[in-house]
Specification:
heterodimer, A: 7-stranded mixed β-sheet, 4-stranded antiparallel β-sheet, B: mainly beta, 6-stranded mixed β-sheet, globular
């Protein structure tokens, strides 16, 4: 079964450092997403990406965050200057022609900011 | 904004019994719903979905019921097994492609 792959599984970084979280979506999917889940809380939408541009973003996704699809397979989330409160699980997801088509999540990257 | 919530944060059932997990949503414009299962340290795993033009959908051992009148969604798991122990989330989409998740119900299956 096709999978969304995320690397690394766990990232520890110092406050103020930049981090890049990487995702390989399902190959024929067109929509890409990042969500985050702070420990013990619900999964929250960050951003969706389609046709090489951001299509939606939440108020969490401020100027510290950016996304990129640098090549035909990777989808990245960059946090420019990490804060302690950025510590969370970050999930990448992808879907086919829209949300109703095979919306699949990766296993997540646990980001710990110290 | 949208609000998706769960009635019970925890649920314990005996192995072999049926489980029912409930979810309330507030946006009457929501037209697509998914139940996800999340095991410790893993991402949300799709269980079953339902569109707003349906009120029931069945999968393997799972059934989702949608009551649009009271904006309520439920997940029924038949013959619950230890491997079903996880946190279960409902998620909804109203417009666009972003899901709104509930806070989750932790299901524990007692052998």
């Amino acid at each position: 079964e096709p999978e969304v792959t995320q690397t690394p599984s766990h990232q520890v970084t110092q406050m103020g450092q930049e981090v890049i979280l990487r995702c390989v979506p399902i190959s024929n999917h067109l929509y890409f997403y990042w969500y985050r889940q702070i420990l013990g809380q619900k999964v929250e939408f960050l951003v969706s990406f389609y046709n090489n541009e951001i299509s939606e973003k939440s108020e969490i996704f401020d100027d510290q965050f950016s996304v990129e699809r640098p090549d035909g397979s990777n989808f990245t989330l960059k946090i420019r200057s990490t804060k302690l409160e950025d510590s969370a699980m970050y999930f990448c997801a992808s879907s086919g022609q829209g949300a109703n088509y095979g919306y699949t999540f990766g296993s997540g990257t646990r980001l710990t900011v110290v | 904004g949208e609000s998706v919530g769960l009635h019970l944060p925890t649920l314990s059932v005996q192995e072999g019994d049926n489980s029912i997990i409930n979810c309330a949503y507030s946006n009457s414009a929501s037209d697509y719903f998914i139940w996800y299962k999340q095991e410790s340290g893993k991402g949300p795993q799709f269980i079953i979905d339902i569109r707003s033009n349906m009120d029931k959908r069945q999968g393997q051992r799972v059934t989702v019921l949608l009551n649009k009148t009271v904006k309520h969604l439920s997940l029924q798991i038949a013959a619950t097994q230890p491997g079903d122990s996880a946190v279960y989330f409902c998620a909804e989409i109203a417009t666009g492609n972003q899901f709104y998740f509930g806070t989750g119900t932790s299901l524990t299956v007692i052998p």
